[in-house]
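Hey Z.,

So I finally got round to the iron/sulfur cluster thing we talked about over coffee. Here's the setup:
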Amino acid sequence: MATRVIPLVDQRSRSHTVPRSARPVPLVAGGSLVDTRGRPLRDLRISVTDRCNFRCSYCMPKEVFDKNHQYLPHSSLLTFEEITRLAKLFVGHGVQKLRLTGGEPLLRKGVESLIAQLSALRTSEGQPLDITLTTNGSLLARKAKALKDAGLRRVTVSLDGLDDAIFRRMNDVDFPVADVLAGIDAAQAAGLGPIKVNMVVKRGTNEQQILPMARHFRGTGITLRFIEYMDVGATNGWRMDEVMPSAEVVKTLQSAFQLVPLEPTTLGETAERWGYVGTDGQHDPSLGEIGVISSVTHAFCGSCNRARLSTEGSIYLCLFASRGYDLRTLLRDGASDEEIYEAIAAIWQGRADRYSELRASSSEQARGPRVEMSYIGG
Ligand code: SAM
Ligand code: SF4
Ligand code: SF4
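And the result:
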């Protein structure tokens, strides 16, 4: 089936005015901040580049992200010092987990030194942060050890199939699957675990890879997670009939393996977990588990505790937002830590986003074009 591609409407410069704090928040709030739906702020995803060496059609279709596409100039990108300063203020508001993403985060020059700066941050209880990174794995074989040495805890690798022809087609730059598998091995050898592998399942494209992927990663200590193809951004020509619901993925897996449902491990966990059953009929931890992330068929907005910092320093409150809040201007206009801290509080206190719960409603569908995932990160 031919991919429908929709031209890019540049959303990057559209932003909300940064509000002033509605309610006073002490400088070390330690996590008491909640949004209009009572959701705390725990997870900050940081996009470090809008560039990528892959052209996955569900994210950066080649026809849109071609040689004429204008990437951000280097001066627009937050510097590592600016990112670290903002991250520290977010940690003051209760963030415990940082995830570097993009674009392809390993393309950002010197990303190891950013990781080193971030790994020096501590929560208000003096705990180190959970620092992780999502990557397409293409540069991981080369960089895994340096990333670990810099303080990265773990990685999530995106991999949409094991069949080389299918994988080359999906990344659309003819990148071989063997190189990503070598990257995963290097990450495991460097101790960047527990590793997660994310597979976006697109009906008609790679659903025949579900079982081979499960067989490959079962018993390796790597958790494979299947992600429903989402209507992020505005260019990928998303259609509901190309979404393979997680329930169907689980049914496919159950045709080959015995699985039992597992309890969530953390608050706000997006994946529904299933464990492989051993000979005694119970979950066998040595065989591991799989996860399904049902972003389309089962909204988890009620526990969504994530904020996203775009490559040029705007905060997005939802993956499906049309606009962010420009913190870079505050940073570069010389705002104090207290002022930025209060601005973050006011932004989060005003948050009402729950796109996945409202996906089908006409008001959501009539809203302006959404920002691209490669800009705000996954
Ligand atoms: N380049 C890195 C990578 O691919 O892992 C990090 C950025 S990428 C935007 C982050 C995650 O978003 C990847 O796991 C990718 O598969 C996922 N993603 C991108 N577009 C998606 C879509 N339309 N539906 C579901 N997941 C998507
Ligand atoms: Fe690049 Fe990741 Fe998007 Fe694929 S999903 S195009 S690897 S940013
Ligand atoms: Fe969070 Fe928005 Fe996704 Fe809902 S749709 S889970 S609010 S990112």
